[in-house]
Amino acid sequence: MSEGEEEQKYKLEVEGEEPRDSSRDFTGKGTATYPNGETYEGEFKDGLRDGQGKYTYINGDVYEGEWIENFRHGIGKIEYKGKGVYYGDWIKGKRHGEGLFTYPNKDLYSGKWEDGHKQGIGTFIFYDTGMKLYGSWKAGKFVEGKWIYPNGTYFQGKYDNNKPKGVGTWNFNNGNIVKGEYSQMVKVNTDRNDPKKPDEEILVWKTT
């Protein structure tokens, strides 16, 4: 802290009242400013954030929605600075239930969440290509379902690290069906002029 600066303290402002230095036992609407500079504007119950409210974090993230006992809980929207926007269900401070996440590049995921991760049935849409991943997600990764092209052609099978792996089926828009198996291989970088270039991951398809 620089000379002459005063340490910022907690402050709760309530319309028509003198500022408070604590929210203890307070029920109603108010604006809280925390020692770290973060702010909350909304409803309190028994001194806790509870009801509708807007919280602005020191890193620039902004959450607006429902709260229960100081947790983001219910329906809410958060704008992660530079990382995207989530709107949907929350439980105990984590994305949990149904929700939509829109990324800065306009890609989006709509579906189930659990403990803050994509989990369950959901759809990921790539904005630039129009391709979709539809099916089952686990711990944030796509594990089984359809890789769909804009023309209706799709691959159905299992995935590892969001890429096809193992037995699956290509279903073409002309009605043709091709069964086979994907392998994930690594092409090791042997370029002496660019030794720091990362190894290349390659998908290999074998018709059965």
Please explain how this structure is put together.
This protein is an all-beta fold. The protein is built from no helices and 16 strands. The protein has a 16-stranded antiparallel beta sheet, with no helix packed on it.
Provide a concise account of the structure shown.
The protein is built from no helices and 16 strands. It has strands spanning 11-13, 28-33, 39-45, 48-56, 62-68, 71-80, 84-91, 94-102, 108-114, 117-125, 132-138, 141-148, 154-160, 163-171, 177-187, 200-207. Strands 1-2-3-4-5-6-7-8-9-10-11-12-13-14-15-16 form a 16-stranded antiparallel β-sheet, with no helix packed on it.
Present the secondary structure layout.
Layout: E1 11-13, E2 28-33, E3 39-45, E4 48-56, E5 62-68, E6 71-80, E7 84-91, E8 94-102, E9 108-114, E10 117-125, E11 132-138, E12 141-148, E13 154-160, E14 163-171, E15 177-187, E16 200-207
Antiparallel strand pairs: 1-2, 2-3, 3-4, 4-5, 5-6, 6-7, 7-8, 8-9, 9-10, 10-11, 11-12, 12-13, 13-14, 14-15, 15-16
